[in-house]
Amino acid sequence: MKLLLKFNLIFVLVFAAGLAVSGYFANDFLQRSAREQVAQQARLMMETALAARDYTTLQVKPLLETLQAHQTSFLPQTVPAFAATESLGYLKGQYSDYSYKEATLNPTNLRDRAVDWEADVINTFRNQPSRKEIVGERDTPTGRTMFLAHPLIAFPPCLACHDVARIAPAAMIRRYGREHGFGWKANETVGAQIVSVPMAVSLKLAHEGFQDFMGSVGGVFLITLALLNAVLFLTVIRPIRQLAAAADRISLGKVEDSPELLVKGSDEVSMLAASFNRLRRSLVTAMGMIGPE
I need a labelling partner for 210 at 20 to 30 A (CA). Which of 71, 228, 256, 265 fits? Predict the structure, then answer.
């Protein structure tokens, strides 16, 4: 096997090992960055929902309660949970994979009833009262989705509508019935605010970024390999070939036909060429002393 080929094999093996390690860390970094980006989107949606709740509680509810007091109908727009769900429902109209739900185990409005996986999230909050946030991932028909959940606590003011049916507003009973949404206990976790954000786009961008990174590194390696080959050939391979050719001629007795090698620099190859030149001169001198037979 030629020396240049051996060098190339060594370069390729070293590069492959380095590429595997750097590729692993680069992919891990890009995947984590993609997930963090999705988590930030989920937190932004959650803060938007909380802002809608606060706006309803502080500004809308006082106005509508005055109107509601003169009517026999119940206005769900006075309920912060309803306002937040409706507000982010318009977002879902434009971005169908994004969703917000105030999932509840025993809701007044049945659209808020928790499905199986949401019930698991709620029960986690119930079993771990100190926990304030859950972030997880789940597979959906449209792809991988990240969800962010905060607990919903039944604070004392909530019991005016959700304690027992007989003390709940009559207009609310007429609208939603008396079969569900009651029996809540003060400071009990009754549900969870759950934001769901699709991960497909961010993960796709991370994957494309990883492919671009690997392609760029591979291109840089090929260019570097070509430059290394050129440098090796000029500084190592060609001088060694000249040295080998001269040694071959001398071994065949053609000492006079072997001119001295050109010595440039003080590296190991130059030192070898200089040593070879001294050996050649010594052979010429020795053969001159022996003389012709």
Answer: 228
Strands 143-154 and 188-198: antiparallel
* Nearest CA among 117, 136, 119 for reference residue 190: 119
- Give which of 48, 164, 29, 52 is closest to 95, Cα–Cα: 48
pLDDT digit string (tens) for 140-190?
A: 888 889 999 999 998 888 888 888 888 888 878 888 888 888 999 999 999
Other beta carbons less than 10 A from residue 83's beta carbon: 21
* 47-76 confidence digits (pLDDT tens): 999 898 888 888 887 777 666 555 566 777
- Structure tokens that stand for 36 in this block: 């963090």
What's the pTM? 0.70
Count of CB atoms situated within 10 Å of the CB of 54: 13
Joined tokens for residue 39: 């988590």
* All structural domains of the chain: 35-198 (no CATH), 207-290 (1.10.8.500)
Q: Quick one: which of 281, 205, 220, 238 has its CA closest to 31? A: 205
Label residues 97-109 b or e (16+ Cβ within 10 Å = b).
ebbbbbbbbebbb
